[in-house]
Predict the structure.
Amino acid sequence: MPVIVREKAEKPFVPKPDDDLLVCRCEEVTKGDIREAVHAGLRTFGEVKRYSRVGMGLCQGQTCQRLVRHIIASELGIAIDGVGRVKGRAPMEPVIMKELALSRRDSKGVDDYAE
Amino acid sequence: MRIASHPVIEDYVKGKPVRFFFDGEEAEGCEGEPVAAALKALGVKIHRYTVNRHEPRGVFCAIGRCTDCVMTVDGMPNVRTCVTPLAGGMRVETQDGLAPLKARRVE
Amino acid sequence: MKRYEMIVIGAGPAGLSAACVAAEAGMDVVVFDENQRPGGQLFKQIHKFFGSREHQAGIRGVKIGENLLESAKNAGVKVVLGATVLGIYKNKELAVRFGGAVHNYKADAVVIAAGASENMMTFDGWTKPGVMGAGAAQTLMNLHGVRPGKRVLTVGSGNVGLVVSFQLLQAGCDVVAIIDAAPRIGGYGVHAAKLARMGIPFHTSHTIVKALGGDFVDGAVIAETDEAFAPKPGTEKNLDVDTICIAVGLSPMSRLADNAGCDIVYDGAKGGYVPLLSDEGETSLSGIFCAGDVCGIEEASSAMIQGKIAAAAAARDLGYLSGEDFIQKTGEYKDSLKKIRSGMFGPESKGRADIARTDEGYPLSRSLLQRGFIADDEVTGFPSIAHGGGTRAVIECTQNIPCDPCQDICPQGCIEVGENITSLPALTGNKECIGCGLCVGVCSGQAIFLINDDFEAGYGTVGLPYEFLPLPEKGAVGRALDRSGKEICDAVVVETVNSKAMGKTPMLVMKVPTASLAGARFFRADADGARKGG
């Protein structure tokens, strides 16, 4: 495993009036939380996500991902495509355990399940 | 809030009227329409209160993406009401954090 | 593991079109869609489509959806609804959830047509019930028959914001205002014009600052924007609304392609992260194709063609289509795609603010771009807005958008767009208009008016598209509104044309004084709320 070293910014964190604005609606992460994560040295969406839980709620970042990328890019003063994305991973949406437990490798054709 | 007549849409694909329970009170909707649509038609705006800030949330994307409209349905929390078809006898409850609201709030 | 020759993800315009082409070529095709109903956005798109005959121009999205489902059924396509594709794994294996369990299938070819998701913007109070995506409003009213609210503010003046605002009015809601942070309206001028003439105000260079209210929205604060799109202090205005619709663009849903391992690139012009594709829509992984908004934000017409191209390529690769047939088929598809992508709103011009003139050299109406209506002094310059003499069509179509059904429908050949479907329509001048009103009904932008100067002494008539309930009856009295929605004179309805050929866009003919013929563009009946449906 490569070790990623991140250092806190040298300048003190400067609060802004809209830091209390919710950005991630699911996990209730604010703009200030994201800015602080960047100030703490985190550079990409993936890093900020693991640090702050932004985009880790029920909707899996489908609503806030773009907003968060913009905030990170603006904090770092870089272009939006430099922030990276969250890799699309299965399952695409939360699945209840029972359904996963009923996962079948030997599924019949879809016609056989028709009501 | 239901649209009785529309200049372009002749009729909406709707099931038969059914009774269900919203926060313990009997209500009416159409079978098969999303629970959220039935609630919207009744004028319900608040579907849940969030875990941390206890802030109200309602329908936001209406297509099952954002999960803001989740409620407790037949005892199961976090059910996306905008993509869950309404069925007769369904128990739909405003969700408070992850649990149903104990008592119905009076607006 | 059960194997299908083609698995399509998404039963919207792109996915269904792909499935039809593959199934017609003889492939065993299954389509998975997470929704309870197929059709994607088509069944919410109750407006008439733009384009040419081959793009089904002048036909409503709903009808196009019905036709597509019918074709899919006839071709033997299996559509499984309520089925979410959870992941795409090595060797084109898919995990699909439906019927309370997760099933695994293998495909020889996969077409990802998962569509797009709505962009959002943050502002104080944006999480309150009553703030929603424009798509949510459209879903509630057009699919489920429920009004999203009573008084609505639309944020964003792209085509989605404009079309949804008009549909809100058709559903019986009030649209209080449409705002856009940019200094100009983003969508088609014709879409803006049909709202402006009903008196809906446009505030360009404005943004939303705050959603007011306690547990839900009971107002909104908007403010002017500076060059950086930030609100200017001191310019705040309060609006009395209970619903705020956000229409600030879409992002491609490329997550599944990403999950499959396809190369993904960031392309701002396409709306975000998109799969890297060949001309045929194939991703970096052989046999995995993408079509529709997943590849970059466009609209349903191009999505359908992209789906066909991808499926034809898959059919060729699997031996269901000969090389010659493929070239012949896709040649037509590609020509059709090129046509629909042309013009000042096409993907290549997207976001350009420097276009000042039409292809023909006419200066664009600045008032249309800023306020949603052509100013009186700008109106006369266009080729189809000539005045004087008998009955004739006045076509207030002043931007190069890809659309030509007016040319096809006129039984007299009075209207000419020409080979290039983005050209402004012109009146040929050598043919006699019979006043049938078919052009008024077919125009997707509702930009055609039928003017008759010689109705009776001192009066003429204006025929206008009127897609609202109740349709005023002959003899109804009211006021004529001009392009900006201002009442300019009394008006009496002398006729309504609502034959089947009008396609549910009735033409209302109102009598106004001759002096008002050039300006009167909408009718408001006197009776309380008569304009509203439902």
About this structure: Helices of chain B lie at 35-41. The first strand of chain B starts at residue 17 and ends at 22. The domain at 17-96 of chain B is CATH 3.10.20.440 (Ubiquitin-like (UB roll)). Residues 1 and 40 of chain B are 7 Å apart (CA to CA).
